[in-house]
Amino acid sequence: MSTAMNFGGKSFSPQPPERGSFPLDHLGECKEFKEIFMSCLKESKFDSSLCREQSMDYLKCRMDRQLMTKEPLQKLGFKDLVDDKSAEPHQQTDT
After folding, report:
1. Is the pTM of this model over 0.70?
2. Main-chain phi, psi angles of 37, to 5 degrees
3. Residue 88 resides in a domain
4. Are 68 and 34 in contact (CB under 8 A)?
5. Tens digits of per-residue pLDDT, 8-50?
6. Looking at the 3D structure of the chain, how many domains does it have?
7. Which domain holds residue 66?
8. In Å, how far are 61, 72, 84, 90 from 93, measured between CA atoms?
9. What is the mean pLDDT of residues 61-89?
């Protein structure tokens, strides 16, 4: 006599939440960015406001490798950094 239950043969397929969590980087695709960010945090005595560029680079890496949902960096709190970076190429010096 079998004690296994077969609920109509349907298999459960878990789905990740839309927000609030993201897959672990099992392959270490963004490890370099994470290490740079963690080093910055340690050097700044864990004042994350001093490591925003490193944080942004880490999140961009995760989005580029589909380890998290792509979001505009402005929505993630980096509006000032994105605006500053987009303005840089337009600045020219006369030498």
Report:
1. no
2. -60, -45
3. no
4. no
5. 656 666 665 556 666 789 899 999 999 999 999 999 999 999 9
6. 1
7. 28-72
8. 31, 30, 17, 10
9. 84
